[in-house]
Amino acid sequence: MKVGVAISCFKNDDAVIELVRKIISESWPVEAIIIVDSLGGGKIQEHLDINKIKNAEYYNYDVNLGSAGNLKKRLLLSAKKDWDFVLALNHDALVTKLTLLELLKYKDIPNLGAIYPLKYFPSKKFYDYSGTREVGPWRSFGEKSPSKDQLIPCIWSSSNGALYNLKPVREGIIPDENLWMGWEDYLYGLDLKSSGYQQFLVSNALCEDSYEFRVKRLGFTRVVLASKPSWYTYYNTRNLFLICLFLHPGFFRAFRIFLRSIMEFTFI
Predict the structure, then answer these.
(1) Cα separation of 21 and 141, whole Å?
(2) What is the pTM assigned to this prediction?
């Protein structure tokens, strides 16, 4: 069983170089590394050349691929290799070598589409299980301690740290590059599910996500929101409606997302 790594980059050269250095120095159990960049300045390729790193390939595109376009490129490039799985990482990779080893324990599950590490948000002090439900009026939810179950079936999770089976990619199941803000991950999870592939969160494959939140007062109560600009909420809602109305239509999915959109714009 062969596993590769595919790293995304956009103006984060130093972080990607450090990540490549870490993977190589710690001897992660992977065949090679693919790096996909947008509008890169050449610093990463220069690092690979100077240090004669032969098991890393750098691809630089002259347009901003966006998060969805980058993930699509990474999976398609990985599918051209003789790999069975690919670990998708952003420049701020959440997973460690130990996390990867935990994920690999479950690579032989039948009809496996993807397995994901279980994220812990220190700022909110809970483990993220939001991907075990359809997207709805809830924003994210979790538990104060991880589940005792090692494998938790889920619908989707972040691609940052996901171990993807490349069989679905070779069958033509790929992320939609027209979506972004993370909802390309939700759509890809729905595509995997509708094609009969299983997805799981792995409790022992833990990683911390330092996602930034802020506390805002709403009437007599307080809410914890992602620390993002208002236009981010617009694109969140726009992409969710594209999914529920056109790409994976359904009355209950549309109703849940309608309620969520009201909540999102209330928070703005």
Answers:
(1) 34
(2) 0.92
